[in-house]
Amino acid sequence: MILPIYLYGMPVLRKQTEDVTPDYPELDKLIANMYETLTQSEGIGLAAPQVGLALNLLIIDLDPIADTYPEYKGIKKTMMNVVIEELEGENITRPEGCLSLPGISESVTRKEKIKVSYVDEKFEPHTEWFEGYIARVIQHEQDHLAGKLFIDHTSPIRKQLMKGKLTNITKGKVYCDYRTRTARK
């Protein structure tokens, strides 16, 4: 089932998430629905707050960028109870966008290499290093799990310049090719 993407202004996007426990009801169904939603919205990453749940859960499917980054062909990850343990390497600045902030793209500086601890959908623990584009995607999605958005990494001047777009998103005055839920009253 395709879930609505919660847009900027929805309170759940600013909440700190709770860890997922093995007794979470219908977890497999939730994960499957998130992947279906991600595919339909043509994204590469999705965090549970973006579908209205304050859970420490994110998914990544990098197949849509495999033409540009062939090394990411077939990379699909479900990560729960995510903790970024270490950040290393250069600071790399690249444009980012987000399904919860349609029509907005801003340059964000992130570390090029990260060490991440998480459990997969079977609650098997993993500690892995990621670098390059996948490290950026994980950092972006992990921000969602901490109640942050990529625009929080921009300067006050950049935030001021996008204020009108953000206001329109909260009012539901934005077009998306995917299902959304807005904060409009």
Could you write a compact summary of the structure shown?
The chain has 185 residues and is an alpha+beta fold. It has helices at residues 27-41, 133-145, 156-161, 163-170, and strands at residues 5-6, 45-47, 57-61, 76-96, 106-119, 125-131, 180-181. The strands form 2 sheets. It has a 5-stranded antiparallel beta sheet.
Task: Please give the structural blueprint.
Elements: E1 5-6, H1 27-41, E2 45-47, E3 57-61, E4 76-96, E5 106-119, E6 125-131, H2 133-145, H3 156-161, H4 163-170, E7 180-181
Parallel strand pairs: 1-7
Antiparallel strand pairs: 2-3, 3-4, 4-5, 5-6
Give the tags.
Peptide Deformylase; two-stranded parallel sheet; globular; alpha+beta; single chain; 4 helices; 7 strands; 23% helix; 185 residues
